[in-house]
From TrEMBL:
Organism domain of life: Bacteria
Residue ranges constituting the EAL domain according to the UniProt record: 1-254
First and last residues shown, out of full length: 265 to 518 of 523
Source organism: Geoanaerobacter pelophilus
Protein name (Swiss-Prot/TrEMBL): Diguanylate cyclase
Length: 254
């Protein structure tokens, strides 16, 4: 209950902040985009990870104001990187399934883009398979309009939920993100290697990109490269960074 009450204050009084984890094209070591990840700088408990408060936000009906805050902050940061540092970065925001039931979702996304003057193709929405299952028809219609507007849609944690393979066929998403639970043992587990290889194959057949998440070692990177997975994200390349650290990170890439 205390976290719940604190969360409303956190959203309204800037106790939340975003960190940004680079996604790389490992064929040329360029950054293809960054994923915004929310943190809560709690006045007594210190910095909290989203796993400890996003579920609370869901239960307390605060996921919508939280999502609005994240969208607004991520879009204005992407615009600021470009304006102040000449960094042209695509920024990705995670959308919980429940926000698809909100009637203002499209409007808030458009407003976040307009207010920050960010071109729609610089925004990526990371959605999970659940969003496609629970809100199938509505979610697909909303996503189709958002994609027509120019935003990119990626399927997060791919392979961990009930894959809506029929919606993958009906609808052309930009990318599948291979969940880190398959990447962590991809070198030692033949099952995980088979799953990663299958997701790669499927994404190619469906003309989507695939991005491996949670890459922590050179061996994982090499295996993924061997199955033609060029897009990767993970601690091996970079932990999530403060906005102010991004220019330096990019400057020091090989
Ligand atoms: O950021 P971290 O590395 O701890 O992420 C943990 C989980 O929290 C991930 O599943 C991630 O997708 C989720 N998450 C991070 N930021 C956001 C956010 O802004 N909104 C939602 N809905 N989930 C987020
Ligand atoms: O569900 P989602 O993919 O949005 O989750 C992103 C989460 O994964 C964040 O909590 C982020 O900090 C975490 N993460 C990013 N890279 C790595 C990594 O290489 N290893 C592990 N274990 N977690 C990672
Ligand atoms: Mn994500
Ligand atoms: Na994920």
């Amino acid at each position: 209950l205390q976290l719940e009450q604190g969360l409303l204050r956190a959203i309204n009084y800037d106790e939340l902040f975003l960190v940004y984890q680079p996604k790389l094209d490992t064929s040329n070591m360029r950054v293809i985009g960054v994923e915004a990840l929310v943190r809560w700088n709690h006045p007594h408990l210190g910095v909290l990870a989203p796993t400890s408060f996003v579920p609370i936000a869901e239960k307390a009906g605060l996921i919508w104001p939280l999502t609005e805050w994240v969208l607004r902050t991520a879009c204005s940061q992407a615009a600021r990187w470009y304006r102040n540092e000449g960094l042209d970065l695509n920024v990705a925001v995670n959308l919980s399934p429940s926000v698809f039931s909100h009637q203002d979702l499209e409007e808030v996304i458009e407003k976040s883009l307009n207010d920050s003057d960010l071109p729609p193709d610089r925004l990526t929405l990371e959605i999970t398979e659940q969003s496609l299952m629970i809100y199938e028809a509505e979610a697909l219609a909303v996503l189709e309009r958002l994609q027509r507007m120019g935003t990119n849609i990626q399927i997060d944690d791919f392979g961990t939920g009930y894959s809506s393979l029929s919606s993958l066929k009906q609808y052309h998403f930009q990318a599948l993100k291979i969940d880190k639970s398959f990447v962590s043992d991809v070198v030692t587990s033949s099952d995980d290697a088979a799953i990663a290889t299958t997701i790669m194959f499927m994404s190619k057949c469906l003309d989507m990109d695939a991005i491996a998440e949670g890459v922590e070692s050179e061996a994982q990177k090499d295996f993924l490269a061997s199955i033609d997975c060029r897009y990767m994200q993970g601690f091996y390349f970079s932990r999530p960074l403060a906005a102010s650290e991004m220019a330096d990170f990019i400057r020091h890439l090989p």
